[in-house]
Amino acid sequence: MLANKGVNPPSFRKTGTTIVGLIFQDGVILGADTRATEGPIVCDKNCEKIHYMAPNIYCCGAGTAADTEAVTDMVSSQLQLHRYHTGRESRVVTALTLLKRHLFNYQGYVSAALVLGGVDVTGPHLHTIYPHGSTDTLPFATMGSGSLAAMAVFESKYKEGLTRNEGIELVTEAICSGIFNDLGSGSNVDVCVITKGGKEYLRNHLQPNPRTYTSSKGYSFPKKTEVLLTKIIPLKEKVEIIEGGDAMEE
Amino acid sequence: MPKQQANWSPYDNNGGSCVAIAGADYCVIAADTRMSTGYNILTRDYSKICKLADKCVMASSGFQADVKALQKHLAARHLIYQHQHNKQMSCPAMAQLLSNTLYYKRFFPYYSFNVLGGLDNEGKGCVFTYDAVGSYEKVGYSSQGSGSTLIMPFLDNQLKSPSPLLLPVQDAVTPLAEAEAVDLVKTVFASASERDIYTGDKLEIVVINADGIRREYMDLRKD
């Protein structure tokens, strides 16, 4: 209706982020950049996009930060309750189903694009989940505005049966491709390695973007705001003081 | 059938930031070298700075196709001026020419945000700042482009240019030495690159003084 008056709905935009996941010999490796943007401004230079879901499951989130945070926190709690109920380790497909049901229910209004990875009794698993609730099961995956840059690296260099170090190197390379070629992604590389034995959260595994220049002399700022005018108006004369009078009631 | 809206725009924004600072006997003009469109980088090595006359340099951010056309136009007009007057255009003269050129296209503007810097006829530094349609003002320092909202408040804090409306008339040029001004520019761009996604890659600094024009480069964040 509003389109008649020339007011178009906001165009769809993949919000700034590069997140990836791949399956290697012993499990799953997840990777993410650490830049959070509000339009053209960087609001957080070192945020955490790899969210905890369960001791053996982690989830990378792209899209609206509040949505990814809220939905992963919520499903993480649901998984914990489920673990208490069943007495078993959580499975990746459980997290997958809980997430996709929630996102589908909200018809895409919860703007969360996720890369879910983990290792459970059935083996290593890697999934992508889209804001409308569809999912894919893949050996390697990328999401976010830098997904094309990262996928270009994966499609060139991925092979089955990668070792741990090869996998970490490839994930880092893919995230770096997003960091340097996509303006919506930047700063540092976070990596998370999940195997049957346990998990390894490598926060700021690579920091390829240090500040380029710091002045040696430093800068000083005046400790107070400038005084432009001082005007003192004594108020005592404006008040009439009456002695006596009744005391206030309790 | 509802009225069709145009979904083709003749303009694009290639991003980037420019800064100019005027000194007592020098002028510093700087701009980053990143050219982008949307979320993509087109090139990391594009100069936004153009020498218009011997002692007059312009830095422009915005739509680089319009900037290139504008630079060509001004270069042609300068050549004609040299033929007619047998001398180079002074910076204040070029400032007026730029303003007129921009206003000429008032109803289909050059999407170009300019800062003009150089030395006036007495050898003192001068900086002129423009909007897209030619409104201009002689100032002590200025910034334009995507990072200007981040850069300008810091320059105001450090340099505090007096208003031209104040009486007695205060000098617009900064009391900083040339090296200090260059240091300030480097700091300001390093900071802008941290928070503005369109600013980065490399910084090009041009310094004009009595000895001539000097060019300097510095690396910025590439992410």
From TrEMBL, chain A:
SUPFAM superfamilies: N-terminal nucleophile aminohydrolases (Ntn hydrolases). Keywords: Cytoplasm, Hydrolase, Nucleus, Protease, Proteasome, Threonine protease. It holds the Pfam family Proteasome. The keyword Protease applies. It is found in: Cytoplasm; Nucleus. It catalyses: Cleavage of peptide bonds with very broad specificity. The keyword Cell membrane does not apply. Belongs to the peptidase T1B family. Component of the 20S core complex of the 26S proteasome. The 26S proteasome is composed of a core protease (CP), known as the 20S proteasome, capped at one or both ends by the 19S regulatory particle (RP/PA700). The 20S proteasome core is composed of 28 subunits that are arranged in four stacked rings, resulting in a barrel-shaped structure. The two end rings are each formed by seven alpha subunits, and the two central rings are each formed by seven beta subunits. The catalytic chamber with the active sites is on the inside of the barrel. Component of the proteasome complex. The proteasome is a multicatalytic proteinase complex which is characterized by its ability to cleave peptides with Arg, Phe, Tyr, Leu, and Glu adjacent to the leaving group at neutral or slightly basic pH. The proteasome has an ATP-dependent proteolytic activity. This is Proteasome subunit beta.
UniProtKB/TrEMBL annotation, chain B:
Component of the proteasome, a multicatalytic proteinase complex which is characterized by its ability to cleave peptides with Arg, Phe, Tyr, Leu, and Glu adjacent to the leaving group at neutral or slightly basic pH. The proteasome has an ATP-dependent proteolytic activity. It holds the Pfam family Proteasome. It is found in: Cytoplasm; Nucleus. It comes from the Eukaryota. Keywords: Cytoplasm, Nucleus, Proteasome. Belongs to the peptidase T1B family. InterPro entries: Ntn_hydrolases_N, Proteasome_bsu_CS, Proteasome_sua/b, Proteasome_suB-type. Component of the proteasome complex. This is Proteasome subunit beta. Gene3D superfamilies: Glutamine Phosphoribosylpyrophosphate, subunit 1, domain 1.
